[in-house]
Amino acid sequence: MSPRKIIIDTDPGQDDAVAILLALASPEDVEVLGITAVAGNVPLALTQRNARIVCALAGRTGVPVFAGCDAPLERSLVTAEHVHGKTGLDGVPVDEPDMPLMERHGVDFIIETLRAEPEGSVTLCPIGPLTNIAAAFRRAPDIVERVGEIVLMGGAYFEVGNITPAAEFNIYVDPEAAAEVFGAGVPLTVMPLDVTHKALTSKEIVEGFAAMGTEVGRAVAAWTDFFERFDMAKYGSAGAPLHDPCTIAYLIEPGLFSGRHINVEIETGSELTRGMTVADWWGVTDRPKNATFMGSVDRDGYFRLIHERLARL
Ligand code: RIB
Ligand code: CA
User: What is the four-CA torsion angle of 261, 22, 158, 265, rounded to 10 degrees?
Assistant: First the structure.
């Protein structure tokens, strides 16, 4: 089967970095048409730089990286330096990326790519706030039906929120964008905290990355170690949830994940529950089923896949 064509929309972020590396290490499964950066974990000037740093680290400086939106559609930006550090890739010193940022705006790249590629052949993989995706849909409604699938990291239901008691960060930052993406009618697969909080790293896993003896292994070990501190302090867990690579792992080995096809709506009206993903897990409404909402992952299989693929770089 030919590799799935994808666009990764991202706000690197250590876990975003691992997702990008996993995709670039898996050319038989995914063809990365381009990477669009969005403001999220850190401001856009850093997320676009970090995306290029990760491509250079993977030795894939030919992958086009674009800067997208620098703020949510209708709200001011909320960032997460407290989790990812000032640079967004704290954990290991990195050089300036030796690859250029593309001139075109990331939203234009998304629109033009979807118009140029055969209908249904492109999968969008947003792993940050959904601003770029919603902006593309607003500017070019004709592309919505051309999207094959959206596989995103975001939301939470039984696991509740990580930036407020009700909301997960990616959805919280731009709830209007999320509401428009979840309501667009595109086939949608969601990796919420309900599943990513089961994809916990461990000391052994981090040591396994370091033991690869490669620059990629050392960077991923340092990034996951840094990223872990926040979550271990917060959740008392023995490891950090490696959120974003769940999207790419799903494209490579969908059987690692399980969930339900249900209705998911986004709260945009209340400040108390802004960005909450209201998931009708028990089917108590007749609202349209618009998302496959994942709840479980084969953790060992997930980290086996990540380790096996990253060792290629
Ligand atoms: O809540 C987790 C999500 O927020 C991940 O995508 C992480 O990178 C941050 O963007
Ligand atoms: Ca992210």
Answer: -50
Pocket flag, ligand 1, residue 13 (CB < 6 Å): yes
Is residue 47 within 6 Å of ligand 1 at its C-beta? no
How does residue 288 score in pLDDT terms, banded at 50, 70 and 90? very high
Q: Is 82 a catalytic residue?
A: no
pTM assigned to the model: 0.97
DSSP secondary structure of 215-260: HHHHHHHHHHHHHHHHHHHHH--SS-B--THHHHHHHH-GGGEEEE
For residue 156, which ligand has an atom nearest its CA?
1
Measured between its terminal Cα atoms, the distance across the chain in Å is: 23
pLDDT at 229: 67
Report which ligand 1 atom has the smallest distance to the Cα of 163. 1
277 ligand 1 Cβ < 6 A = no
DSSP 271: S
Q: What is the pLDDT of residues 216-252, one digit of tens each?
A: 999 999 998 877 666 666 777 678 899 999 999 999 9
Structural domains present in the chain: 4-310 (3.90.245.10)
Hey, whose CA ends up nearest to atom 2 of ligand 1?
169
Q: Which of the following is catalytic: 197, 243, 261, 307?
A: 243
Burial class (CB in 10 A: 0-12, 13-18, 19+), 26: buried
Q: How many A from CA of 286 to the centre of ligand 2?
A: 32
Residue 304 has pLDDT above 90, yes or no: yes
Q: State which H helix or E strand residue 108 sits in.
A: helix 106-116
